[in-house]
Amino acid sequence: MTDAIRLKAKDYKSEVKPIWCPGCGHFSVHNAITKAMAALGIDKDRTVLVSGIGCSSRLPAYVDSYGFHGVHGRGLAIAQGLKVARPDLTVLALGGDGDGFSIGGNHFIHACRRNVDITYIAMDNEVYGMTKGQASPTTPMDWDHSKLTPHGPGVRPFKPAALALASGAPWIARGYSGNPNQIAKLIAEAVEFPGFSFLHVMSQCITFCPEQTDWKAIVTESEAPPLADADEAAKQFLHEDGFQTGLLYREQRATWPPPGATAAEEGAPGELAAAFRV
Amino acid sequence: MSTRYLSIAITGAGGAGVISCGELLLRAWAREGGRGLLRKAYGPQIRGGESAALLKLTADERYTAASRYDAVVALDWDNFTRFEDEIVLDADSWVLCDEAQALPPAVVAAGARVVHVPFDELAAACHPEGRVNMLALGVLGRLLGLPATTLAELAGQKLAGKPRDYRDAATACIELGAARDIACQLPVPPLGNKGAWYLSGNQAAGLGALEAGIRFVAAYPITPASDVLEWMAGGLERVGGQLVQAEDELAAINMTIGAAFGGVPAFTATSGPGLALMTESIGLAVASETPVTILNVMRGGPSTGIPTKSEQSDLNIALHGLHGDAPHLVLAPLDIADCVFTTGWAVQLAQRLQTAAIVLSDQFIGQSTAIVSEPRRCAPFAATPAQDPGEEGAYLRYRLTGSGVSALASPGDAGHRFTADGLEHNEKGTPSSRQSDHQRQLAKRQDKLTAFDFGGDWAQIDGDGPVALVSFGSSAAAVTEAANQLAESGVATRVISLRLLAPLQTAALAAALEGCSRVFVVEQNHGGQLFHYLRGQLDFGQPVHSYALAGPVPLSPENIAQAVATVIAEATRS
Prior knowledge:
- By secondary structure, chain A is of the alpha/beta class.
- Chain A has helices spanning 26-40, 75-85, 97-103, 105-114, 160-167, 180-192, 215-218, 230-239, 270-274; strands at residues 47-51, 66-69, 90-96, 119-124, 127-128, 134-135, 171-176, 197-202, 220-221, 244-250.
- Chain A is built from 9 helices and 10 strands.
- In chain A, the strands form 2 sheets. Chain A has an 8-stranded mixed sheet, sandwiched between helices. Chain A has a two-stranded antiparallel sheet with strand order 5-6.
- In chain A, strand 5 (127-128) and strand 6 form a beta hairpin.
- In chain A, helix 3 packs across helix 4.
- The radius of gyration of chain A is 20 Å and the shape is globular.
- Helix content of chain B is 38%, strand content 19%.
- In chain B, 56% of the residues are buried.
- Chain B folds into 4 domains: 6-179, Pyruvate-ferredoxin oxidoreductase, PFOR, domain III (Pyruvate-ferredoxin Oxidoreductase, domain 3, 3-Layer(aba) Sandwich); 198-372, 3-Layer(aba) Sandwich (Rossmann fold), CATH 3.40.50; 384-452, no CATH class; 457-573, Rossmann fold (3-Layer(aba) Sandwich), CATH 3.40.50.
- Chain B is an alpha/beta fold.
- Chain B contains 19 helices and 21 strands.
- Strand 2 of chain A pairs parallel with strand 15 of chain B, so a sheet runs across the interface.
């Protein structure tokens, strides 16, 4: 980094005031991101936060780095294109549960599988907040607080960690908005991990899901080292209650692009035309 | 009869190698200094369906589809009959067929001269690996006066990766075919134009994009655009770029936008269904002022339509498909060679004006291969580095400037940090729903296109007659040929072939139409998309007629000329 003075977390915040409701879990993710950036001494000019649409996707504007606030569900695609084109940059993708697991579900699966070296933070509050409280892919099937699905969504919620594992994500962690220090630590690890790192943050929405304040009592923090065996992890991710936080799974896997897919040095475009001359 | 050319169709089952036969014949023809076009026609099946290599050998570069065929090599009748609409025969045509019995009614009705050539039997007898397409290549090569050694050499290059046996078989079949004396006289055009290029429109578009500076491509396979992307995968490796195969077109366009945000000129290619999926995010590129170029190789639509055949029916979606007021660029290459220039120009314009450019090519020029004079090229785009913003935080990404274009920084540029946004924003990029910000930013994004001087390449204009023939993209060749035919019957025309469709150069177009008594708008789609667009943009002072005919059979110059002549004759009578 170019700045001689070590920056503090608050130095990584922009002047834009968040639109979030008081008590929103995303504030603590925002704090955790800037804390992690300060801990890593990250260069603001070489860091990009990319997002889709939703409450949490507003976050890039609140951080003093480069940012891209895209369209709904496509943040991961923008982030991967950027990282592949500019491997020198630190790229973080951010978004909510609807953005990442519903409209952007296909990109999530393929981002896990492709393993481009980016960090993906999914801020999961089990609800579409920006459109005022509809069920998302992680909403409990009997949650009947939405006018859109008055009898509950009636669909079993996604298990994001299990989905990530099955799709090939090599680094899977879970955080909780009530524990920003842990999130900050996990983000720092995620950024340093060479590959696609998926941090699932349970980030409460007390506006539409006031019952989520109960999470505090049931969340546990794992002290165990992350699993490295996919079979074991699959068993855990399919059967757990989803409230265990910490780094849950880590394996080393080759990142994309594969060796040979990148030219060592720039050739002359003029040579391309030669093939077409009779 | 118009300009003489020699047209040859080779038909057979997909996988029988008729396209390879056509390609090798055209390559050999190119070596000898000939000019010509190879159009490829397929059924929807990938293997085992019908396929046809449609060759037109010419003395010049008038590359319309042939309206009739001098010779047909029909390896079997089943696959030939599926192309009856496209392969028109008459009493002057020669039909070289393997099955001399049970001639198709169309062949009998045309009165074509039929020659039996036992392709199957000869190929099998000459080598255990003998292939009928190589035998046909030898036969046709002899009829064209091409040396068998050239054909065998080119076939050997094409089969370089195959077992030796295959190459030996090809040589044996070519030699046997070339030795066969067939009583068939073909009007072979003159040779002698050396220094040519041999390429398809899709390759030309890929080349134009890379030469203009594209270094990132995101790709999702779709007919008939996949071969652009495949060619670019290899091309990018050679110039130090990167291609990603995306999970869908939504990802492809967004990866393109991501790379472009990183300051790397970025591109994707697709066809109608893919363009439909991309439109939301093309709007994002417009709103966030991120330069991207999208090549849309049009095919028959709507929905899955006719994936393997050509049409110009995506003009409406390219012009009007984005939601909100989203001014962007739409261009269309006029022929195979022009795919190099127009695609390159689109890249330059997108980069300079920081917006999305959609290039409308189509299956006809995209997947046809031609021998052309050295194409016009585009210089690589040179980015202007964002200037020092002065004090920290002073950089305004979306600053209102006289030109509408503001300095574009990329991550890594110190002190220029900003968040690009599809939300309406103020000059700094901070989301804003204020009317004043919305109106200013809308005007900015429009003004940068309106104020820009696009120069003289917006259209190609030939002739100064009082009858205007206006078309866009690949229809230009058929219209130009129709104009030649009209000239022979005393109708002087002015051919205006539009290369830049949005922003439409209305003042220049109005000036080009000055003095015209009548305007014909010609296009290959059902609804008259260009006709309606032009009528909405321009106050025509003269009668305007629509000649709109859907694909997949290419527009016929003869039919266009006749339609124009009929209208003029009726107007004169009344």
